[in-house]
Design brief:
Strand order of the largest sheet: 1-2
Number of domains: 2
Number of helices: 3
Number of strands: 6
Shape: elongated
Strand content: 15-25%
Length: 107
């Protein structure tokens, strides 16, 4: 769990690995810091995912259609930069006469 202050006497509680309520019930450090607990927002998957297939004739999956990362780990930015470089190389190769079959076979 992460308790993130956002105003005096207010904050966000990020719970990973279970519901906030369940994790607070076992917390010895964060639970005593919380006087009132409001409503929770919807959960979301916090694990890496990759689409399959990543390409087919006339299309190439990019960005969130291709891959997703744990939003807490920080890997997404570096992968986004690498993906932009790879995508640019594929587009340049296609513009210079490369064929999709040759370019997408490694994917």
């Amino acid at each position: 769990m992460f308790l993130i202050p956002n105003a005096p006497a207010s904050g966000w509680l990020l719970a990973v690995g279970g519901t906030a309520e369940a994790l607070l019930g076992r917390s010895q450090l964060i639970a005593p810091e919380i006087a009132a607990f409001g409503s929770t927002s919807a959960g979301f998957p916090a694990y890496a995912r990759i689409a399959s297939p990543l390409c087919a004739p006339d299309w190439l999956a990019l960005r969130t259609a291709a891959i997703a990362f744990d939003p807490i780990c920080g890997d997404g930015t570096a992968h986004a930069v690498r993906e932009a470089i790879l995508t640019s190389a594929v587009i340049r190769a296609l513009a210079n006469g490369g064929t999709p079959a040759d370019l997408f076979i490694a994917l």
